[in-house]
Amino acid sequence: MAVQINPSILSADFARLAEEAKAVEGADWLHVDVMDNHFVPNLTLGVPVVESLARATDTPLDCHLMIEDPDRWAPQYVEAGASSVTFHVEAAAAPVRLAREIRAKGARASMALKPATPIEPYEDLLPELDMVLIMTVEPGFGGQAFLDIMLPKIRRTRELIGKHGLNLWLQVDGGVSASTIERCAEAGADVFVAGSAVYGADDPAEAVRALRQSAETATAQASWACTH
């Protein structure tokens, strides 16, 4: 399983997004947090900014929709240029139909779970997805402290992926840093969203490289990776 690092532009300078995107061109994806001030208590950016970012960078966009009614809005983010679109299962009325629509439009479909949402009720949905996002903070704001109590949930999700023999990415988002990424990798994550750990560094590109190296080292020693 290849480690992937996704810097979150939520922690970038919104007045310089094109430059901030270029500062992390060694990253695998650029993580774009979309918030509507309804599903979460914060308001960020929407379709027009995603369209502009898609033109400004060759790094593929990973859009995380923390919004109400993703069934209606998610397909528009694919049309805007997102290569991966994540919807929250807590907000989706028809998650299977939505995942299939996202895929049909040419993007990867991902399902996100808040910290209090268990993975087990959604086991049967996993084959419809390309990625599962386990939130390791409460969604809504960047810079929060990592929730260690999410590590068992990451492990259970990795076990379910293995149980069904799926080629499914497992993403973590929230408080991912040099001090937490190894624990996430050991638990089973292989895609890591990092905001302030990247954009708060003096050299964002070097921060991406350092995070990748830490995650790769932990993954190489993880029991779950040794079975693949």
UniProtKB/TrEMBL annotation:
Any one GO molecular-function label of the UniProt entry: D-ribulose-phosphate 3-epimerase activity
Binding site for a divalent metal cation: H31, D33, H64, D173
InterPro entries listed in its UniProt record: Aldolase_TIM, Ribul_P_3_epim, Ribul_P_3_epim-like, RibuloseP-bd_barrel
Cofactor binding mode and count: Binds 1 divalent metal cation per subunit.
Record-annotated active site: D33 (proton acceptor), D173 (proton donor)
CDD domains: RPE
Lineage top rank: taxon: Bacteria
Family (UniProt): Belongs to the ribulose-phosphate 3-epimerase family.
Protein name: Ribulose-phosphate 3-epimerase
